[in-house]
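Ticket #4471: structure output looks truncated?

Reporter: J.K.
Steps to reproduce: submitted the chain below (373 residues) through the standard prediction queue, then opened the result file.
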Amino acid sequence: MDSIPADTSTPSSSSEPPIAPDSPITAEPPIVREDAAPTALPTTLPPDDVAAIDELGRTYKALKAELGKVIIGQEDVIERLAICLFGRGHALLMGVPGLAKTLLVSSIAETLHLEFNRIQFTPDLMPADITGTDIIQESSSGRREFEFVKGPVFANIVLADEINRAPAKTQSAMLEAMQEHKVTVLGRTYDLAPPFFVLATQNPIEQEGTYPLPEAQLDRFMFLIEVDYPSEDEERRIARETTGLDRGKLQALLGGPQVLEFQRLVRRVPVPDHIYDYAVKIVRRTRPGSKDAPSWIKEYVGWGAGPRAVQYLVLGAKARAALRGAYMASLEDIEAVASPVLTHRVITNFAAESQGMTSKKVVARLVEEMRED
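Returned output as attached by the reporter:
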């Protein structure tokens, strides 16, 4: 099967050494959740990619069923989070308070046999509170030495809760770790063990005293996932099922080595040439300075998406196809991921805001016009 040519400009294109069935991922002991159930977890996939995609599809169904014990509805959100996980990207969740964003992320972490840390971003949070710092310790010989104490970013899944509540200096420390998969403290560099998956949440209301993420930093998130209100039936189920007895622990379904193998499997999903053409065309049409852009884009859009959007469109289509048990990415897959990939990368101007034309509406109109071409 083919794959996207490697591009070292994105975090999703970092090369990884092959994993032997009986060898650890890194030189350090494998990271395991302290409260995870001791379950025998598979570490290798079938050698046949078709059978491996079938196994990924079954695992994804089991994952959704397990999450369904806690999360009611939000199936699109769960699918998009899974696409980011297996596409080796990060996700930014946007939604008003009370929609179970934090519960969803912590529940996903519970179904994965991985270390999970939550960071609550506040205005007084400092970079060292995320990355860690050196402290003076007395050694057995009586000498005082500096010892590095790792911060909460040293985990496989990191929840950056309300990331827009912290100042730019702290945000940049988090986003640097997302980009480089490593942390530099006092001139020394520490690698973050794979898989490394960041889920950030952002509140669209109560913007007073917040620090909105700059557009260049928003671009580091593969998806912007909008968490909407539940339907009436789902809200009735929430009232009935969450006001009774406490739920038990969720079962851990995947370990770190298997997640890494599924991530590499997604890269091998074949993509027809017309899907690559679609990704390039729709991204180029978002740029008001491009000759490919429609006249209304020049009127409403200040800045369009960059090449990273093309890569994430293709990767998202590959991951969605594999999760649904398909052996090749299709036009339906790339249309489905267009909105979460492009919405936070298309920057509208004042003329658009005055007429109620949002970035999401711009992307939806572009997708509709692409169908008519």
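Triage note (M.O.): checked the attachment and the full token line is present. The chain has two domains: 11-268, 269-373.
Status: closed, working as intended.
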